[in-house]
Amino acid sequence: PVGVITTVSDDKKRTTVIDLIKITQKIFPVGRLDYNTSGILLLTNDGELANKLMNPKSKIYKTYYVELSRPLEEKHRLKLTEGIKIDGVMTAPSIIKYPKANDYLRLYISIHEGRNKQIHNMFESFGYFVRVLQRFEYAGLKMGSLREGEWRYLTPEELTALIKLVKDTPANYV
């Protein structure tokens, strides 16, 4: 949920994702979500798998549902899909799809990078304000019927698919 920290612990005593999971096994988040972003987050006890999934060489796509302050102009959509400069560094190309025809306030954007506040910064560079940001999909895993704050174990098939997805990725990413 928005307002939950994606770390194992927090020195400011804010709620962490680990606080939401009531299991005794030691787990940790794979990557992170910004404080004002909700959505799917993978948690694991497998450090090697986590490192492979977070390694930029793996190019794991994350898809976000976005609601903007005004309709996205086509010229800006094209630039975002080609990659833009943020803080002097080019972003990788993104994929943008609209869930409803002729509704350019709401969209899905897929990226394989994970810079701090990247999606907010991408849209703000063109004068848009991101009103809602929710990670909808991670590495092919979708939220499905899970509501904010809920969790479930991966199925054996999902775990196998994740392992296969990163089988050629080095595990030495930190």
Task: Characterise this structure.
There is one protein chain. The chain has 174 residues and is of the alpha+beta class. Helices cover 22% and strands 21% of the residues. The strands form three sheets. Strands 2, 4, 7, 8, 9 and 10 form a six-stranded mixed sheet that branches. A two-stranded antiparallel ribbon has the order 1-3. 18% of the residues are buried. The mean pLDDT is 93.
Topology:
Blueprint (H helix, E strand, L loop, with lengths): L16 H4 L7 E2 L8 E2 L3 E2 L2 H8 L7 E7 L5 H9 L2 E2 L2 E2 L4 E3 L8 E6 L6 H7 L5 E9 L2 E2 L13 H10 L9
Parallel strand pairs: 2-9
Antiparallel strand pairs: 1-3, 4-8, 4-9, 5-6, 7-8, 9-10
Secondary-structure element pattern, one letter each: HEEEHEHEEEEHEEH
| Form type | globular
Low-confidence stretches: none
Largest sheet data? 6 strands, mixed
Provide the residue-averaged pLDDT: 93
Number of contiguous helices: 5
Helix content: 10-25%
Taken as a percent bin, the fraction of beta residues is: 15-25%
Report the structural category. alpha+beta
Radius of gyration: 17 Å
